[in-house]
Amino acid sequence: MSEHIVSKKVYYLIFGALMVLTALTVWVANIDLGSEKLNTVVALAIAVTKAVLVVLYFMHVRYSSRLTWVVVAGGFLWLVIMVGLTLSDYLSRGLLTYPR
Amino acid sequence: MQLPRLPFTPEQASTVSTEVDALYTYLVAITLFFSLLVTVLIFYFAVKYRRRSENELPQPIAGSVKLETMWTVIPFLISMTIFVWGASLYFTLYRPPKDAIEIFVVGKQWMWKFQHTEGQREINELHVPVGAKVKLTMTTEDVIHSFAVPAFRIRSDVVPGRYTFAWFEATKPGRYALYCTEFCGTNHSGMTGWVEVMEPTAYQAWLAGGGSDSPAAQGEQLFQSLGCATCHRADTQGRGPVLTGVFGKPQRIQDVGDVLVDESYIRESITNPAAKVVEGFQPIMPSYQGQVSEEQLLQLIAYIRSLGAPQQGTTMTNSGAGQGEPTTTTGINPDAQRSNPLGPTSPNQIQGNAPPSGLSPQGRRSGQTGGGTSQTGGNSNQPRGGNSNQ
Amino acid sequence: MTDAMGTRVKFAHENYINANYGIKSWLLTKDHKRIALLYLASVTVFFILGGIYALVIRLELLTPAGNIVQPMTYNKLFTQHGIIMIFFFLIPSIPAVLGNFLVPLMIGAKDLAFPKLNLLSWYLYLAGALFTIWALLNGGIDTGWTFYTPYSTTFSNSYVVAAGLGIFINGFSSILTGLNFIVTIHTMRAPGMTWFRLPLFIWSHYATSLIMVLGTPVIAITILLVALERIVHIGIFDPRLGGDPVLFQHFFWFYSHPAVYIMILPSMGVVSELISTHSRKNVFGYSFVAFSSLAIAVFGFLVWGHHLFTSSQSVYAGMIFSFVSFAVAIPSAVKVFNWTATLYKGSISYDTPMLYALGFIGLFTIGGLTGLFLAALGLDVHLTDSYFIVAHFHYIMVGGALMGYLGGLHNWWPKITGRMYPEGWGRFSALVIFVGFNLTFFPQFLLGYMGMPRRYHAYAEEFQVLNVFSTAGASILGFGLLIPGIYFIWSMRYGKFAPPNPWAATGLEWRTASPPPTENFASTPVVTWEAYEYRPMEEMEVIGPDKRDTAQPAHGEATI
Amino acid sequence: MAHAETLDAHEHGGAAATDHHASSNLAHHFDNLEQQREAGSLGMWLFLVTEIMFFGGLFTGYIIYRMQHPQAFAIASSTLNWKLGALNTVVLIVSSLTMALAVYFAQMGSRRMQIIFLVATMLLGAVFLVVKGFEYADKFEHHHFPGLGFQWTDAVPAGVSTHHIQMFYWIYFAMTGLHALHMIIGIGAMLFLIYYAYRGRYTPEYHAPVELTGLYWHFVDIVWIFLFPLLYLLGAHLTHGGGGGH
Ligand code: HEA
Ligand code: HEA
Ligand code: CUA
Ligand SMILES: [Cu+2]
Q: Which residues contact ligand 2 via a Cβ below 6 A?
């Protein structure tokens, strides 16, 4: 399996997209979308998109072996596990009902 | 369920102890079964198929999906029975019942302090009547401790900055050991005591003898002496909200929404009033952090709670204003819940901004030390603080 | 090659031990086999140190009154016992010693993928160890190996930051080992060595490495935060500054629960090898055993909250964690049953490694099943932080992991040193250790249910009888461990020469000389057989420079 | 099973063309460069996974405390200079582009362009650090460094405790500090690359170090892509749009 060479044009395109998304995230942050949660979700969605672009193209994962895909996905999955299960405690604290 | 008590088990002195022992017995049986199964098989095979000559070459056996499925599914099903049983018991253990006598517990390095609703205070010794439900509202002045009474099969950590709960109903008069079971420093193993379970009459007599005022009454005195009463007046003329009848009801908080007024909320209102400001009021209430101890906090809470209480008596503290509520006091109003699910509003919740005030007087000055050393001479030789070493 | 007395002999072939001499050739080596020996020496030192702490603990607990050491000293004893045994002995033990030595050999590679990183990892281990030793010499640390806040951040007056830094640095050593294994197993397998021809030892090390890579960074950052909290009071875990002490427990156990599988999985891999080798049977249900390792590694990350059942964690989170804890027990059960089934119609020898392996199965089963007591929410409320916990984890970590390690050491000792250990003494000491172990730790189950809390310097009278048993057991255990300590050293000089394949085993590591040459094999091996495909000795030719005694298994020959 | 079973396809060694043992770039224990490259790249990816988990601990802390104290975090965040943050974001993205191009020219075998882009990447990294330095200096001046000496002089709205404002700052400093440390390491690696590129070490066949450093550099960029909105922008609409909450 020899390495795949990504053309310069792709790099420039991705770069352009990243710049646009950066501008977008700044713009969105300054308008009130109604709830803080929505603002956060949008900001995170943009960040994730940017990260995915970098991973896929700048880091060549799009052209890499399945193993690399698994490693990358695994890394993020574990982050989600850590955050998710920790939150399972924090979010459900105090939900226990008991008579007083 | 009355199973025979296994040897090497502690006395069964509470209602839940038999239930816990039943689950224990079940698990012992499972353990015996599987360990014996495995051991017997190993011995049997090891003898039967021992190597008889150096050049033996046994036939390979590939495996069996049927067997694999069997020994995946059966243990799984068994373990699910344990899970369900264990979980339901857990809910019993951590859901204090209605109509319980309430006792305040404060842990500190290295002693347990108790205060009864009638006012008696005790250290490392807790008197309770047999056959009555007792609810413990617990916190700590310094590090995490854990309150455990093996004979009752109960235990709960006490965590700085928040309240935790435990309950029990003793079934036999007697003296039962009480331990701190979360490592808390030099004298961790000395942080023990006794729970004295008494006949109700004896308990009443004990209560009558030499108690001080009830926590609520002491709280009332504090309420005057600390100047709370200047702002919180019985009429609506004060600068602060009227506190009568607030306990157990939702309160509307600026920028947050409805929050249930419970122990943790009041604690926070006193130690860090700015955290939640009642709608329609200015954040002018000063913080009393560092001026009231954990025990005094509990007394103030008892007092405020009693303001809404229609009747007095042993169950007084539980009947607070919240009695009219449908008792689903999740510690959090559904709306408030949604607005900020993490908001520190419930008994179990983080009280991030509610430092245990007992620490603060000295803690402030030296930067970090645990407070209250003066109260227990024995403790003062414990070097404290994170200074000097790394 | 041998002189008349059989002493002071040199190996006939050039191997990794005699390839070159001098302290530098060891300290700067990039050979995975030599690095394994460096690790062997260092973890042994720490095991003895940790063991001495344990003996003093047991001595103190002989009587109810805490009258031998000061309370503060006692707290330091068990803390340092725990820290040393876990971070500096058990976690590196099998992976860094046996794994380092065997992973490349077993897959037919010349070395690990990153030999320099491998050496670096030993130096990091050493640096971490020195930091920790420094902390111990300067007064020690008294927080318990769990470092719970706010005690560790604000109240303890001991050397938390230094010891923490030691663990922090040591963590990177662990990460590098894991990373190296994963890459090696993926990219360096010999031609023909497909995934399902790999020895189960490799599968379990692969699973272990996953945990090391995914979990260890979290303990590193956690310890860093504890240190920061202590030094500059950032407030993250300090309730007085708005932090949450329970968050620390989440972080700590996010690593430390998976870490218990770092400790047991390699041992399970060893046991798979030993059971197969010493009954000359292929492992029953190979692929189930292989995948159960991965399942343990993955699900092991979802259960950490079972250490927080009474710590004011939400009861609902408790339920999730309890449920998954039961689920993660299943792959372990699968392994136990498959090992047992492997014995069926085998040719079972009673060599020392096999005794350890059989002991492992029994003790691990008891240790694991008592884990179920703790995973059962309502029961854990009574059991947590009692001696029941202490018994549970010693049954797994000493009765399981340590037995596996010792069994593995015996099994591969001929390969590592080129010498046989004395079989008779081996069996005798295995028996003593087994008896001593059970006598030490079984009474602790009973003590725990009776309510004796752990980390207690002094205890109530009624617990004394069982504690006396436990202490007596510990002395037998200590004596038993002394025996291999002595004869291993003895055998390096005086042991009988080992043939390349003394057990008539199938692994690639047995197809090269004992000890192996620096490049492991004379030529790259080409694998044409399945895992655990036992054949007559004549058919298992050696791909190494030393073809002596190929057909002579050394079974049952006690040399002493 | 028989001895003479057919061999599984060679797992590696297929690429016989690149199989020159004599090459000085091939470590002795690898069979060929392809295998070595694969190992290196897998190793680097695994290392990046450990980095994710390393930063992950801080992210988790951030998420939990922010959910508990949204207002305090928003207020603290609004004292950061989002324009500098945005500038740095742009700088880093450009540096990622130049890094990608450096790898590209290494693959093409153009030594000159490769060096040019490596130098550019390094300089952009330095620019980032300088900007960051100014930001830090500003925070120190205002006593916004958490720990001893932390001061918050502005008025605090109701419901907000300065503890939690400080909490934001320690997260800010821990995360950006750790990120900056990674940048510094990256710049150090860049120096090596430039030196060896100058010596003509990297060829279309062998340029793994450039590639791996590239992976690392992009990863550091990604971390910043998350840090920027989470730290600088989270409260923007609150402080600008006023009010907030509900
Ligand atoms: C190598 C170390 C190791 C291993 C492998 C395990 C394995 C397990 N552990 Fe253990 N554990 C520790 C080391 C280990 N543990 C340590 C060190 C502590 C204390 C830390 C401290 O606080 O200091 C601890 C504490 C601990 C607790 C916390 C107790 C508390 O503090 O309150 C719990 C709770 O769930 C638990 C559960 C389990 C379970 C369910 C398993 C399972 O993985 C076990 C699975 C194995 C089996 C089940 C046996 C084989 C199965 C059969 C023979 C078939 C029959 C099976 C069924 C019917 C299901 N352990
Ligand atoms: C790998 C882990 C490991 C191992 C192997 C051991 C081994 C032993 N442990 Fe340990 N233990 C822990 C991990 C381990 N422990 C942990 C994590 C804790 C919790 C700490 C905490 O609470 O924070 C703990 C706590 C703990 C306690 C509870 C303390 C308390 O809570 O108050 C006790 C008490 O009996 C104990 C005893 C023992 C004993 C008797 C051994 C014996 O098996 C030791 C046997 C070894 C020796 C006796 C060494 C002798 C060997 C030689 C002399 C060989 C000589 C060789 C040559 C000369 C070459 N341990
Ligand atoms: Cu209090 Cu232990
Ligand atoms: Cu665990």
A: C 48, 51, 54-55, 57-58, 78-79, 81-82, 85-86, 89-90, 144-145, 390, 394, 397-398, 402, 440, 454-456, 474, 477-478, 481-482, 485
